[in-house]
Specification:
2 domains; three-stranded antiparallel β-sheet; mainly alpha; Arc Repressor Mutant, subunit A; globular
Length: 185
Amino acid sequence: MSASSDVLDIPRLRQVWAQLGELINSTEGSARDQDQPFIRLHKAATHQPSSGDEAALLLAKEIYRFRRKRNEFFASTLFADPSWDILLELYVLRREGRKASVKSVCIASGVPPTTALRWIGMLVKEGLLERNNDQVDQRVRWITLSNTGFEAMHKLLLSGVMPATGSSDDGFQSSLPMYASRAAR
């Protein structure tokens, strides 16, 4: 596989999704658009982002939404990647200028709270997340992406929506030397 084929071809992906949605929806009979997730996805996909940053945000939202949607078709016990779900959710929230409590992050992870808390702890230890107390209510703890976590997520998502600039994928790893070296341990 060449480096250029490793990058997501978003327009082609949208076209395939639209075709798949039309095929699925045509076999289900007619229903309102809101009852047809593939039509909603197709309509959302027709919006052309104005920048790579906006495209990265839209990609993060679609990945997270799709991951939740698959639980309607498959047992949720078949798929579990709470750290990825947490990172996606916190990336979107940071881009939208919002923050999340520990409780809401646990819910977003899609796993039991004890498991989510364990993953949050690991992500904090890796330097990807930060925990902060609420300034007014000391019972509330906020979870946010650290600058390192945000940069890693942003570059990863951009690599999925922007054309490759180099001839290999080494650029991504070398652009995050601090985290890449920690992850290799």
